[in-house]
């Protein structure tokens, strides 16, 4: 379906079209908010806010209601519910009064900001009392923000782990932005998932093969080229030569890509023999002819990730030697590196890097690729994302509202109009019940009455995300403590 053919009226949970009949009589405002609930014991204490601008630009900006779309929705819902429940009159008022633009205001955290769990991330309210029912009508679409937020958050957690080990074993963060490569394009559910997830990863890193994410960054975040890759082999380009000609397959790649780095998957048959007998013997001189700018990146792709990688690096040390950096850790020659792309998740990458450290190797030697653990093995409950109503007005009189389930206190919701501020101790906190001061509010109006009011570039978003914690005490990792980003003291760049 082309973007111009998208019918906004059909982009919601169907039961929501009946809600205009359910609100209290004379209600004239519904105010709701989105958060990633704080949950004790969760793996993540903070989230990276990203992706709202894409949803607003693609689906909500400009005239989104037409007579044709009203009629299409009317027929669809008549068939679906088998009774007349669609608010044809209400939607026609949107068309006539606002030329099909949505009388909605959205205030949000600037994209890229890292926010402690449990804080408001954006608010939604109607700007015209006739259209109170619109606020939660668009919940379905807006809650899909869980996906880019979660990917950006997981990607940043990878970066924190990589930064920790890189700094400890090399003394600097050189090359950090390229340490985690997005291998996830084929593993996601759709082209749009690839675009959203791929772009979310690019908030933190500049290394990817997910073209859809790059195109989204171009079209929606004004970034001509957000990420980079290198020529790389896959198993088909190796095994098509036959088992007896693996050396010729490797040599062909060296010939074709004599300048610039190149990655060669080397486990089609025996990764250890390939490293020792082909790369480290038959093609040793060819490898040594290359430079740091044209390095060979060897890729294991099976077996236990940590054990295999350590065995590979030991073989390469025997064949090519190594040096010792200023921190006392071993580094392969600059023309030779390894990328581990199989079995990579937050746990395994930390385990691999720790085992390398224990064996005396610097994190400089390795890159990582990640697919499903980065873009697909996650869901809305990973960060407990929720959209709830917190304030209503009836006949112009305001009332703070909330939910408080007796069976699960963690699902209690916030009350009243909300704002996000930095308190006197420097910590971010959500102020409820309309008690916040407008001049302190960090939420920015990004959308009003069909118009996009903020247009962030990926460069701006990356700057927001690159605030970094240089030293963190163990206590600060506790989920009950204030999140790490409340102690910002250093920048990655």
From TrEMBL:
Pathway: Cofactor biosynthesis; NAD(+) biosynthesis; nicotinamide D-ribonucleotide from 5-phospho-alpha-D-ribose 1-diphosphate and nicotinamide: step 1/1. Keywords: Biological rhythms, Cytokine, Cytoplasm, Glycosyltransferase, Nucleus, Pyridine nucleotide biosynthesis, Secreted, Transferase. Residues 178-423 form the Nicotinate/nicotinamide phosphoribosyltransferase domain. It catalyses: beta-nicotinamide D-ribonucleotide + diphosphate = 5-phospho-alpha-D-ribose 1-diphosphate + nicotinamide + H(+). One of its GO terms (molecular function) is cytokine activity. Residues 472-493 are annotated as: Disordered. Its main location: nucleus. It is an enzyme of class 2 (transferase). Its EC number is 2.4.2.12. InterPro entries: Aldolase_TIM, DUF5598, N/Namide_PRibTrfase, Nicotinamide_PRibTrfase, Nicotinate_pribotase-like_C. Belongs to the NAPRTase family. This is Nicotinamide phosphoribosyltransferase.
């Amino acid at each position: 379906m082309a973007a111009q053919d998208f019918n906004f009226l059909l982009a919601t949970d169907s039961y929501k079209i009946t809600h205009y009949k359910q609100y209290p009589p004379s209600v004239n405002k519904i105010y709701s908010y989105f958060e990633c609930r704080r949950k004790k014991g969760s793996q993540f204490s903070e989230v990276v806010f990203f992706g709202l601008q894409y949803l607003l630009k693609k689906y909500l900006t400009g005239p989104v209601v037409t007579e044709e779309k009203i009629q299409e929705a009317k027929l669809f819902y008549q068939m679906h519910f088998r009774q007349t429940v669609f608010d044809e009159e209400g939607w026609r008022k949107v068309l006539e009064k606002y030329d099909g633009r949505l009388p909605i205001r959205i205030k949000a955290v600037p994209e890229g900001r890292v926010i402690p769990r449990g804080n408001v991330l954006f608010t939604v309210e109607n700007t015209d009392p006739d259209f109170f029912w619109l606020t939660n009508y668009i919940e379905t679409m807006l809650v899909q923000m869980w996906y880019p937020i979660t990917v950006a958050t997981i990607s940043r957690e990878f970066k924190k782990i990589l930064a920790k080990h890189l700094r400890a074993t090399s003394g600097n963060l050189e090359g950090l932005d390229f340490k985690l490569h997005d291998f996830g394009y084929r593993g996601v559910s759709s082209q749009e998932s690839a675009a959203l997830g791929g772009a979310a990863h690019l908030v933190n890193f500049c290394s990817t093969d997910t073209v859809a994410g790059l195109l989204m960054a171009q079209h929606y975040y004004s970034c001509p080229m957000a990420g980079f890759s290198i020529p790389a082999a896959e198993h088909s380009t190796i095994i098509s030569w036959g088992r007896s000609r693996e050396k010729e397959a490797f040599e062909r790649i060296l010939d074709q890509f004599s300048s610039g780095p190149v990655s060669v998957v080397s486990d089609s048959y025996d990764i250890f023999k390939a490293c020792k007998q082909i790369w480290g013997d038959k093609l040793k001189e060819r490898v040594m002819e290359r430079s740091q700018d044209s390095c060979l990146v060897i890729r294991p792709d099976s077996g236990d990730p940590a054990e295999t990688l350590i065995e590979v690096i030991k073989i390469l040390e025997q064949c090519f030697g190594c040096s010792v950096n200023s921190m006392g850790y071993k580094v392969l020659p600059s023309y030779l590196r390894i990328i581990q792309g199989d079995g990579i998740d937050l746990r395994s990458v930390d385990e691999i890097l720790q085992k390398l450290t224990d064996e005396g190797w610097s994190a400089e030697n390795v890159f990582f690729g990640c697919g499903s653990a980065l873009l697909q093995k996650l869901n809305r409950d990973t960060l407990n994302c929720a959209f709830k109503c917190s304030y209503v007005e009836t006949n112009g009189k305001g009332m703070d509202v909330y939910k408080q389930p007796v069976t699960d206190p963690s699902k209690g919701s916030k009350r009243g109009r909300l704002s996000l501020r930095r308190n006197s101790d420097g910590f971010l906190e959500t102020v409820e019940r309309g008690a916040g001061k407008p001049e302190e509010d960090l939420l920015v109006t990004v959308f009003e009455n069909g118009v996009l009011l903020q247009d962030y570039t990926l460069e701006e978003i990356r700057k927001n995300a690159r605030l970094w914690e240089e030293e963190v005490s163990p206590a600060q990792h506790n989920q009950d403590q204030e999140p790490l980003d409340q102690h910002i003291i250093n920048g990655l760049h």
